[in-house]
Task: structure prediction
Amino acid sequence: MSVPIKLKALTKSIWVFHAACSPCNNCDIEILDALTPRYDLERFGIQLVGSVRHADALLVTGAVSKKVAERVKRIYEQAPKPCVVIAIGSCACSEIMFRDSYNTCGPVDKIIPVNAYIPGCPPKPEALIMGVVKLIKALRGV
Amino acid sequence: MKILFEFIIFPGFLFTAIAGMIFSWIDRKVTARVQWRQGPPFFQPLYDFVKLLGKETIVPSSANVTIFLLSPLFAIASTTLASVILWKAIINPQSLFVGDLIVIVYLLAITPIAVILGAGASGNPIASLGASREMKLFLSYELPFIFSILVSVIKLHTIKLGEIISYQQSSGIVFNSFSGAIAFIIFLLTIQAKLGLVPFDMVEAETEIASGVFIEYSGVPLTVHKLNRIMLLFVIPVFAAVVFFGGNFLSIVAVLVLIILIRNTNPRVRIDHAVKFFWRTCLIGSVLAVLLALIGY
Result:
């Protein structure tokens, strides 16, 4: 019963942590772009934090490779709950052309539970913002 | 009973926390406007505070649990006490004791020590890196800080905080003299380091060492640390206004705006540059200000 209230309080001030799991870095550039003053995510309370123990939302990018799979699990366990996971980019949602590769371990939701998917290669900052807004509305129960 | 009311409600914990949140919002809004963007809504520090209270507290297995969880409490208790003494001096200048200025300097020095202890007790090598930076910075800025306060003490011939306020109201503020102006400029630079703001925020550098000293904190201890930083953003400009301007309300806002503008227009410096800066330029400048005050300028 207390978890939905905590999730509602979390929607007003989301601190994001960027966990890049062997991406090609285009999605990371778009995430960085969305956090610049032009799109001004701080007016929604969104801040970038340096330590995973301060994080409310994990932004996971990239097709998860074998080396990084256990580390993503450990990072998810290190984030204090309640924590949401957002898979950004088509490689994180479902590995588009890397699905039969020798090195990849499946999309992100095979390893950690994901709350929101934002497809695109790479998704524009507007798409990122729309995904975050949809997640906030879903958490608030609207 | 009256002491408990003064410590917890006014001018203690509740008053300082709310005023600190308002000052923190002013800081973030002015920063946003300088960067040509909108900035957070008015209750944003309150939302951050409530959200952090709801997160779970994780204590790493290699940490010393007692010191890890107690050090934020030491920091916030000493900041609250410093705020109580300061506001009692402003409201009722006759009600305090000789040497309350020295007590405030000691209390404001407990926060860096508590941060170092907590970071050392967390068992993370990155946190110990941040703690070593905080130690070096603290040893560097504390001496110019004390010398700048000494200028005001020498010019007004008193060490009671209440008398510093009332003498400045009758005989002109300390800032109106050469030594007072130099001392105020150096004081402004040392409190940038004391507040952990750019250009001296290498202690909890966000992108460089993954939040340095606060890396292992989460949940309620992190809330206490962040609230302590916010309360210091309120207490230290009020202290600067009392020592150099006689407690004028407009001067509190002016000191805050100066701190914010310095924060927005400078990059972060390296720790050895900061140590050299404080031990060379700031120390020589503040000793010069003390000598000028002794001569009579």
User: Anything to note?
Assistant: Chain A has one domain: 2-140. The longest strand of chain A covers residues 15-20. The mean pLDDT of chain A is 87.
